[in-house]
Design goal:
Elements: H1 6-12, H2 18-31, E1 34-35, E2 52-53, E3 65-69, H3 70-78, H4 87-94, E4 109-112, E5 116-120
Antiparallel strand pairs: 1-2, 3-5, 4-5
């Protein structure tokens, strides 16, 4: 993902104000349709940040997060599956057949939205 700013998103989303963009991003994150690590409420308009979209990877330079549908996340948790269960979701999202070098020992953070759950590594590449 190339970095973006809230100011750029005002233009790209055709919103009239910073408040509208922040509200849109918070609503989309609750649903799990987008993911970002920053506290969007306190983020200044010109601070760069990574944003990930659930339905397409966009122009991603970094691979710090990937989505998993909520029902598959419940299966992952219920059966206490390991990271190998998550690998096809990563590969599908990033359109690759490779496995990241540190995949097996990766401990992911989790953000649960209403439709998608995001697995991510804080400030690191997968």
């Amino acid at each position: 993902m190339k970095y973006t700013t809230l100011r750029e998103l005002i233009v790209k989303t055709h919103r009239d104000s910073l408040l509208q963009v922040k509200a849109l991003l918070m609503k989309m994150k609750k649903r799990g349709l987008v993911f970002y690590q920053e506290d969007i409420v306190t983020l200044s308009p010109d601070t760069e940040f990574e944003i990930y979209f659930s339905f397409f990877k966009g122009i991603i330079e970094f691979e710090n997060a990937f989505p998993v549908p909520l029902d598959m996340y419940y299966r992952y948790r219920a059966y206490q599956l390991d990271n190998e269960f998550l690998l096809p979701f990563y590969q599908s999202y990033y359109e690759t057949t490779s496995t990241p070098a540190h995949w097996k020992e990766s401990s992911f953070q989790v953000y649960q939205g209403w439709e998608f759950v995001w697995f991510y590594r804080k400030d690191e590449r997968l």
